[in-house]
Write a structure and sequence with these properties.
Blueprint (H helix, E strand, L loop, with lengths): L1 H11 L1 H25 L2 H14 L13 H11 L21 E2 L8 E2 L32 H6 L21 H7 L16 E11 L3 E8 L2 E12 L5 E8 L9 E7 L2 E5 L7 E5 L2 E6 L5 E5 L11 E11 L3 E6 L4 E4 L2 E4 L1
Antiparallel strand pairs: 1-2, 3-12, 4-5, 5-6, 7-10, 8-9, 10-11, 12-13, 14-15
Length: about 350
């Protein structure tokens, strides 16, 4: 009977008991929430930081992060670096200030220009001399004092391009060269106005000496031009010529011939020698008497081009253009002054 009555009590009052437990839980949550609202968030964060810092290293098993670079980057983000403008007189990030070398040969340290005593060797430095004042009243490039010295006018701007002494050079050119504009014999070198026109032109013998033969009339030379066509239309024209006669229509004459031999040692021959023909002919150009020497060449492939002279075209560019075609030894006349090429 009693067990039935007890069971009946809890069964009869179950709803009230559940409602009472829920009310107590709700009251605790409200009290906790109110306490949390009253707590300062910054103070709570600071407390957490202190709690973390007080923990012993390694207690969490994770190595603390290095915040140095983060802090530097944060500072740069708030206040970026700026570059100062370039100074015209002093040093800067982009250009160093002007320097001169110390006057003492053993030192030669770079120092500022206005330095009176070198800080490296204690040597007194020479003072900078002020540039002389040059007056040019007519603004023609010729100083007034220089014009007065040579009889020119400081008030005539046109006399710089005139030629006072008639030597082919303007007064301005004479001033630049440091010569006397009133003396015809004192002037810049005329060769400064002479130039060579390239390419140079070489005049060479068109033939070579292939062989020779002694005849009652004298030595007969076998001269051969491998570039000229013969009477049959093929390349290679021979000029059989007796010494003293013209060599065809080439403009040259066989002036003389000398038969000559010499002995030379044979390479690897144990002192043995052989006789070599070194005969030569003297060939003369009829137009000016220029002579060259031809040695005997028995093989066409070994024939060398023999130069008679090298012609050059010269241009003299003063008072117009004057041209000269010259070879070594010629003379040219430039404004009355003769030069040998």
């Amino acid at each position: 009977m009693s067990s039935r009555n007890g069971g009946n009590f809890f069964t009869a009052h179950y709803d009230w008991l559940a409602a009472g437990v829920a009310a107590l839980a709700l009251a605790g949550a409200v009290v906790f929430f109110i306490g949390a609202l009253k707590e300062d968030p910054d103070a709570h964060a600071a407390q957490e930081v202190r709690r973390i810092e007080m923990r012993k290293p390694g207690s969490s098993g994770v190595k603390a992060a290095d915040m140095e670079w983060y802090e530097r980057t944060a500072k740069l983000a708030k206040a970026p670096l700026t570059m100062n403008p370039v100074s015209e007189t002093g040093g800067s990030f982009l250009a160093s200030e002007r320097r001169v070398f110390c006057a003492k040969a053993e030192c030669r340290a770079p120092i500022p220009p206005a330095t009176k005593v070198c800080p490296f060797c204690n040597e007194a430095q020479p003072e900078e001399e002020a540039a002389p004042v040059v007056l040019d009243g007519d603004d023609d490039g010729l100083p007034d004092d220089w014009e007065r010295k040579f009889g020119l006018s400081p008030n005539n701007p046109n006399d710089a391009n005139e030629d006072l002494d008639g030597d082919g050079f303007t007064n301005a050119e004479e001033y630049a060269a440091g010569t006397d504009p009133s003396n015809r014999n004192d002037h810049p070198d005329y060769l400064d106005s002479l130039k060579i026109v390239l390419p140079l032109k070489e005049t060479a013998l068109p033939f070579f000496l292939r062989s020779y033969m002694k005849t009652p009339a004298g030595y007969k030379l076998d001269l051969f031009d491998p570039r000229k066509r013969n009477d049959y239309g093929t390349l290679g024209k021979a000029y059989p010529t007796i010494v003293g006669q013209d060599i065809g229509e080439t403009g040259f004459v066989a002036k003389a011939f000398e038969q000559k031999e010499k002995k030379v040692k044979i390479a690897g021959g144990g002192g043995a020698v052989k006789t070599v023909d070194v005969s030569f002919a003297t060939i003369e150009r009829k137009s000016d008497g220029k002579t060259v020497t031809l040695v005997v060449t028995t093989q066409q492939g070994k024939a060398k081009r023999v130069s008679v002279d090298v012609q050059a075209k010269l241009q003299y560019v003063r008072g117009g253009i004057k041209e000269f075609t010259v070879v070594a030894g010629d003379q040219i006349d430039l404004n009355g002054t003769k030069y040998t090429v």
